[in-house]
Structures are given as structure tokens and as C-alpha cells.
Fold this sequence. Notes:
The protein has 4 helices and 2 strands; from the N terminus they run H-H-H-E-E-H. The chain starts with a helix and ends in a 12-residue tail after the last helix. It is mostly helical and 109 residues long. It has one domain (4-70, 79-101). Strands 1-2 form a two-stranded antiparallel ribbon. This is Gp6-like head-tail connector protein.
Amino acid sequence: MATIEDVKILLDITDNDMDEKLSLIISNAEKQILAYLPEGTVTVPDPLQYIVTELAIVRFNRIGNEGMSSYSQEGESITYGDDIAPYLAAIQAWISTQENNKRGVVKFI
């Protein structure tokens, strides 16, 4: 499980004032990843925990700009993409390594 401490370190948050908000963001990030994992997966596997942390940071930084695809003001421009898209390959790679997801081979003689 991505720890709130990891997220706080990366966001340079030193107090506990934001803990409730960060916990909710982390929980939602975990749910977002679980939606891409095989049915029956109830927790995000350890090799994918870094994605929870990264998604939580992206979501935290986007607070106040929900629904926007881009923002521009006085020469500053920010473009938002799909948050999970950069991690889909890693998620798929993990899924393909799982024993339950191995496919058999059919040979015709």
C-alpha cells in the first residue's frame, strides 16, 4: 500500500493537516488501478505501488483544475493528460506475468 508518508515527502508536506485529503486521494488512486487488474484482485500488488504514489501526486496537484484539459494564463500554459495512461504498459506487463493469466499453446501436427 502506498504510504501517506511517501506522498507527503514527494509533495514536501511536513505537517498532518492534509492527511485526510491525501488518504482519500491515495484510496481513489488504488481503486483506479484495481479497475485495470484482473477481477478478484482486492489490493494493488507491491510492484505496482509506485503507480499509486504517482497518481496521488498528480491528483493532488490537479485540485482546483478538475475537468480541465489545459490552462493558460500570462504566458504560463499547463496541459493535462490522462493520468493513468503512462502506467498502462506497466500494469499490463504485471498482469502478463501472473500465473493465472498464462495462455496455453495449441500445435497442429
